[in-house]
């Protein structure tokens, strides 16, 4: 195009940005577009923010936003969505509210859906409730996706009554909206995940059977993975292996990973060694697979195997990523990392966690039922 003296415009660069498969390509296209004066086009800016975030370059996405002279709602939505993907969307949304950005830029449903999803993930109840109030007070259109996000938010925060009220006001409901009223694929993933406890194996197997026989739902890899997980955790490792062999789809890491974990938990070291070797080749950048295999070797007393796995991780540039979770207390979001003992209140936290674990043990032993089924 450039060789034929046809000057690309903002629409051209918007398409090119979306087609960039690497960050280096994106930076080249972005630099050229800036030289040609496209920084004021809101759709181009929005696309750049989205693609930067997809490549993990959140700081570049923020720089693009800050340097833009035309920050309309589509740009705010892209930036907030980008921050939500890395767990920081709520803080940015609070910044938007604090600076009264929403007075200059009228938020839309897409922006609120992104923030609600982030609120759901970290349990930020006050922010989600504020969104609901804002929508009601300002007469914003209740799109299907926004109502569904509100229902999901209230349900996962434990406010069932509020979820029902939103649901009852909906003139149109899709399968995602009905998923908490009538079991579907997503519902059963939630149920089977909850059954990943040694005393709920029977519930998991019955639920899987009901899902296929009563509701005619074809199991996905996620459903199979949940069943393998609960079997392996319960010590039924050989049954889990037999279950895998009878699956109608090809097993992947979501299947072999739980089996490997079960092998480590219950002493099936030879089988675990075989599965572990396969997994680190199947998912060479998944740090958790290496850790499990190294632990397997350690339990077998094969220290040369442990050293070999660690060397392999180093040679392949595999970075260990610790598991983490969020919780909101008094509008402050706290991040918890697996096995973290640095928090000043860690002793009290682990004491409460231990108490909750005992209560779950007692409840699951007495209430081995599923009420909605």
Automatic annotation (TrEMBL):
Alphabetized Pfam families for the sequence: E_motif (PF20431), PPR (PF01535)
Keyword Repeat: yes
GO biological process, one term: RNA modification
Cross-referenced InterPro entries: E_motif (IPR046848), PPR_At4g14850-like_plant (IPR046960), PPR_rpt (IPR002885), TPR-like_helical_dom_sf (IPR011990)
One annotated GO molecular function: RNA binding
Alphabetized UniProt keyword annotations: Repeat
Protein name per the record: Pentatricopeptide repeat-containing protein
Organism of origin: Pisum sativum (Garden pea)
């Amino acid at each position: 195009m450039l060789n034929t003296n046809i000057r690309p415009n903002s629409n051209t660069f918007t398409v090119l940005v979306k087609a960039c498969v690497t960050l280096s390509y994106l930076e080249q296209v972005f630099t050229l577009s800036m030289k040609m004066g496209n920084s004021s086009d809101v759709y181009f800016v929005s696309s750049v923010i989205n693609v930067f975030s997809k490549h993990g370059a959140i700081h570049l996405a923020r720089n693009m936003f800050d340097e833009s002279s035309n920050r309309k709602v589509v740009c705010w939505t892209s930036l907030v969505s980008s921050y939500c993907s890395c767990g920081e969307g709520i803080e940015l949304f609070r910044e938007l509210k604090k600076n009264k950005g929403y007075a200059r830029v009228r938020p839309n449903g897409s922006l609120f859906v992104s923030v609600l999803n982030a609120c759901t993930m970290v349990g930020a109840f006050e922010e989600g409730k504020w969104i609901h109030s804002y929508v009601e007070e300002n007469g914003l259109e209740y799109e299907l996706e926004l109502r569904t996000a509100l229902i999901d938010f209230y349900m996962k925060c434990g406010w069932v009554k509020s979820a029902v009220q939103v649901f009852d006001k909906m003139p149109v409901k899709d399968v995602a909206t009905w998923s908490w009223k009538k079991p579907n694929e997503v519902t059963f993933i939630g149920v089977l995940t909850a059954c990943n406890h040694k005393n709920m194996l029977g519930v998991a197997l019955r639920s899987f059977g009901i899902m296929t026989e009563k509701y005619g739902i074809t199991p996905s890899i996620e459903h199979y993975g949940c069943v393998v997980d609960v079997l392996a955790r319960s010590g039924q490792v050989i049954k889990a292996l037999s279950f895998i062999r009878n699956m109608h789809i090809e097993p992947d890491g979501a299947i072999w990973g739980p089996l490997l974990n079960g092998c480590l938990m219950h002493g099936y070291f030879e089988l675990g060694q075989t599965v572990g070797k396969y997994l680190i080749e199947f998912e060479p950048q998944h740090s958790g697979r290496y850790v499990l295999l190294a632990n397997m070797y350690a339990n077998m007393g094969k220290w040369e195997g442990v050293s070999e796995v660690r060397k392999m991780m180093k040679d392949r540039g595999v970075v260990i990523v610790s598991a983490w979770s969020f919780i909101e207390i008094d509008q402050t979001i706290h991040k918890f990392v697996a096995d973290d003992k640095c928090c000043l209140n860690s002793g009290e936290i682990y004491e409460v966690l231990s108490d909750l674990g005992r209560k779950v043990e007692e409840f699951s032993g007495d209430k081995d039922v599923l009420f909605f089924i």
